[in-house]
């Protein structure tokens, strides 16, 4: 037994030595963060995870890993991975199957369907046996700084909160442990900070979109550059950010209300049985209802955002003044102009966004069996494509909503109903008129998602919730 174990240790050391040699690109006997990022590219690891790996392994605090530090880190990490493997392997047959994955995650409050458990298994199953042996488990998680099963659950869940400026998507699912620990609210806060920076960065494009939605083709002609020049001439550089303050202000309450409503609606749908896993279409229904609840609560801020975005220089002194003038001249009902088309737009946006995202992610997992979960590029790409598809489906309703919100801002414009507006747009501008302003809206998706991701990751690191995993 002793010689056999010694031989196993020697084999492991030789394998680790080969890994060290592959990662040590400049062959100086040390591995720094740059070499780790280059050598482990494509494994879906965040910068924060790699930094944590160096920090844990760097015993002499010189900022790099020498050979012995690298070996010691992998030795300790493999011990932790082996403990987690045995915890998952409930029948002690040396193999992990989909049922064991599902049971283990359920024990820490993460409920997944049988199909999701099978997808997780396939992403790690290199030999096609529909089970995971120790070697497959170790190779999959060797460079992921996971320390317990909750970390593994988060890695598999891949949950990111990226803001595209259209807060209509289905909220994330969180485990009971994540809710108790305060992880959820730190995650929501990171999403709110990321959304604030992202929306502020793309605010000029958003203002251009609103102008084109409201004024159509008759009053607001020319390309984007001429439009920006017109705005600049009327109100100076800062006028490009009109309406952004209230747009940022509504992120946190909308996110909090939507998440709280989503949890309550899910609980009602489960009928008190928390172990029940909601299917994709059930998540969509719960998410749509939660979105409708949040939109109802914060909708007056949506109206204020549109009015402030369209305002002329000196028209309002601020958010409070705008609200006061609307209330005095138009009454309380004005704060819910365009509410019906806004509510109707939630269903096509959230449904298509979720369906396209799940389809793209499943297609990636099926084509890349045996690899780590989708990396940042894949996740951001899936999010951008699904959001684009959702917007294409719901945009006509969003355009009508904005025109109804802005009716008092356009001098001499009759107060039309949703159907009257729809008919007038089609008659005067054709079907293309229903998509007026969509180009700046689509143009802002990639920068919005990218900025949101970067800020989101750094905010999570600062708040201590940088667990490897994304959407």
Automatic annotation (TrEMBL):
<feature type="repeat" description="Solcar">
    <location>
        <begin position="182"/>
        <end position="268"/>
    </location>
</feature>
<keyword id="KW-0479">Metal-binding</keyword>
<feature type="domain" description="EF-hand">
    <location>
        <begin position="76"/>
        <end position="111"/>
    </location>
</feature>
<protein>
    <submittedName>
        <fullName>(Atlantic silverside) hypothetical protein</fullName>
    </submittedName>
</protein>
<keyword id="KW-0106">Calcium</keyword>
<dbReference type="GO" id="GO:0055085">
    <property type="term" value="P:transmembrane transport"/>
</dbReference>
<keyword id="KW-0999">Mitochondrion inner membrane</keyword>
<keyword id="KW-0496">Mitochondrion</keyword>
<comment type="similarity">
    <text>Belongs to the mitochondrial carrier (TC 2.A.29) family.</text>
</comment>
<dbReference type="GO" id="GO:0005509">
    <property type="term" value="F:calcium ion binding"/>
</dbReference>
<keyword id="KW-0677">Repeat</keyword>
<dbReference type="Pfam" id="PF00153">
    <property type="entry name" value="Mito_carr"/>
</dbReference>
<feature type="domain" description="EF-hand">
    <location>
        <begin position="112"/>
        <end position="147"/>
    </location>
</feature>
<keyword id="KW-1133">Transmembrane helix</keyword>
<dbReference type="InterPro" id="IPR002048">
    <property type="entry name" value="EF_hand_dom"/>
</dbReference>
<dbReference type="InterPro" id="IPR018247">
    <property type="entry name" value="EF_Hand_1_Ca_BS"/>
</dbReference>
<dbReference type="InterPro" id="IPR018108">
    <property type="entry name" value="MCP_transmembrane"/>
</dbReference>
<dbReference type="InterPro" id="IPR002067">
    <property type="entry name" value="MCP"/>
</dbReference>
<keyword id="KW-0472">Membrane</keyword>
<keyword id="KW-0812">Transmembrane</keyword>
<keyword id="KW-0813">Transport</keyword>
<dbReference type="InterPro" id="IPR023395">
    <property type="entry name" value="MCP_dom_sf"/>
</dbReference>
<feature type="domain" description="EF-hand">
    <location>
        <begin position="11"/>
        <end position="46"/>
    </location>
</feature>
<dbReference type="InterPro" id="IPR011992">
    <property type="entry name" value="EF-hand-dom_pair"/>
</dbReference>
<feature type="repeat" description="Solcar">
    <location>
        <begin position="374"/>
        <end position="462"/>
    </location>
</feature>
<dbReference type="Pfam" id="PF13499">
    <property type="entry name" value="EF-hand_7"/>
</dbReference>
<dbReference type="GO" id="GO:0005743">
    <property type="term" value="C:mitochondrial inner membrane"/>
</dbReference>
<feature type="repeat" description="Solcar">
    <location>
        <begin position="278"/>
        <end position="363"/>
    </location>
</feature>
């Amino acid at each position: 037994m002793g010689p056999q174990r010694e031989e196993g240790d020697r084999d492991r050391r030789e394998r680790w030595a080969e890994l060290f040699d592959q990662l040590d690109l400049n062959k100086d006997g040390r591995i720094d963060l740059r070499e780790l990022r280059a050598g482990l590219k494509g494994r879906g690891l965040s910068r924060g995870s790699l930094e944590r790996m160096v920090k844990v392994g760097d015993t002499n605090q010189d900022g790099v890993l020498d050979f012995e530090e690298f070996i010691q880190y992998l030795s300790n990490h493999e011990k932790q991975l082996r403990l987690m493997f045995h915890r998952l392997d409930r029948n002690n047959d040396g193999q992990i199957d989909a049922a064991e994955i599902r049971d283990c995650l359920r024990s820490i409050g993460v409920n997944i369907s049988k199909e999701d458990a099978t997808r997780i298994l396939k992403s790690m199953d290199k030999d096609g046996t529909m089970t995971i042996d120790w070697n497959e488990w170790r190779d999959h998680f060797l460079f992921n700084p996971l320390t317990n099963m909750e970390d593994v659950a988060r890695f598999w869940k891949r949950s990111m909160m990226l803001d595209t400026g259209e807060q209509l998507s289905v909220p994330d699912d969180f485990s009971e442990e994540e809710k108790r620990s305060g992880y959820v609210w730190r995650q929501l806060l990171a999403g709110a900070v990321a959304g604030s920076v992202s929306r502020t960065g793309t605010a000029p494009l958003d203002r251009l979109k609103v102008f084109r939605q409201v004024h159509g083709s008759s009053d607001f002609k020319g390309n984007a550059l001429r439009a920006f020049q017109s705005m600049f001439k009327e109100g100076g550089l800062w006028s490009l950010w009109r309406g952004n303050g209230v747009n940022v202000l509504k992120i946190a309450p909308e996110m909090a209300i939507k998440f709280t409503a989503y949890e309550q609606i899910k609980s009602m749908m489960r009928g008190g049985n928390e172990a029940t896993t909601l299917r994709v279409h059930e998540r969509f229904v719960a998410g749509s209802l939660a979105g409708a609840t949040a939109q109802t609560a914060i909708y007056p801020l949506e109206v204020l955002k549109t009015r402030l975005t369209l305002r002329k220089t000196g028209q309002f002194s601020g958010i409070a003044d705008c609200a006061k003038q609307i209330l005095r001249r138009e009454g309380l009902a004005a704060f819910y102009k365009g509410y019906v088309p806004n509510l109707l737009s939630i269903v096509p946006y959230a449904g298509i966004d979720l369906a396209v995202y799940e389809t793209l992610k499943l297609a990636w997992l099926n084509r890349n069996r045996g690899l780590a979960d989708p990396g940042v590029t894949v996740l951001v790409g899936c999010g951008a494509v699904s959001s684009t598809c959702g917007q294409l489906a719901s945009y006509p309703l969003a355009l009508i909503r904005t025109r109804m919100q802005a009716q008092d801002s356009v001098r001499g414009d009759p107060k039309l109903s949703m159907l009257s507006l729809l008919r007038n747009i089609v008659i005067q501008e054709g079907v293309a008129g229903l998509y007026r302003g969509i180009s700046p809206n689509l143009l802002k998706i990639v920068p919005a998602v990218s900025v949101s991701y970067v800020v989101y990751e750094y905010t999570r690191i600062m708040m201590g919730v940088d667990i490897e995993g994304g959407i």
